[in-house]
């Protein structure tokens, strides 16, 4: 079996068909991302610190962004930030910030919620900082507004809170798993914006922890760069700020996590029938009625309420925080019950 994970069948190697993990009472093939996580946990391997396979790098865009904010980006700063390793070679962090950054961001606008008809699409390349700026400009261009007059005062109501668009985009780019190939996807539909990033939750974080405002960035050095450029305002506040921007709207961002992806859906506040059929105030009471039957999982409460994964988790976290419910166990064994 050996002492280092992942343990695998010798005939198959460390691939999904050769690595199995427990899921309840069954053994199931591990995903590529799960295998990568096991290797990284065992070896203490950090993607940002690895030697970049490309060394002919330029930083024109990154230097311009630092200069805009009165920050230098010379050889000393490049080394301090972690863009160079002790031998003076560029790391993967340097690769991400360079004009030659391989990962991209794909954006698209659709005329229907089924995403069958494109109205616009583009793929942004270059420094990850440039991709962020280009993708946000695309979202801004598609953030329309509804105008209301109260007396002589004109009030514009944007489809999406600007802070929600910004936090969703920056956080998903900052925390994505760059060892997995593929672009970050941004989709604008009549009823919502969806941003999908590769990589599930970082090791040590569970879905229910997303409401706790804790910070465990997958890419610490990249997050530090974004913080210095004031693109991230404070660690651990992104999801809370997104949710707060929808307060009083009867709507909330929805977060879905799989083993390989992390997605955020921001509802269009001006879309017809945007409000949930059941008022937000009644959902906690419905959750309490669900727990009255005994200890339940988050998935069971979610099914009883007919809401999304993120909404169910947020409601349960609020109930636990207020003392109206208790959380027991961890991981797949997490249960919620009345005190």
Automatic annotation (TrEMBL):
What Gene3D superfamilies does the entry give?
A: 3.30.565.60, Winged helix-like DNA-binding domain superfamily/Winged helix DNA-binding domain
Which Pfam families is this protein grouped with? HATPase_c_4 (PF13749)
Matches recorded under InterPro entries: ArsR-like_HTH, RecG_C_sf, WH-like_DNA-bd_sf, WH_DNA-bd_sf
Name-wise, this protein is AAA family ATPase
From which source organism is this entry? Collinsella tanakaei
At the highest ranks, the source species' classification is: Bacteria, Bacillati, Actinomycetota, Coriobacteriia, Coriobacteriales
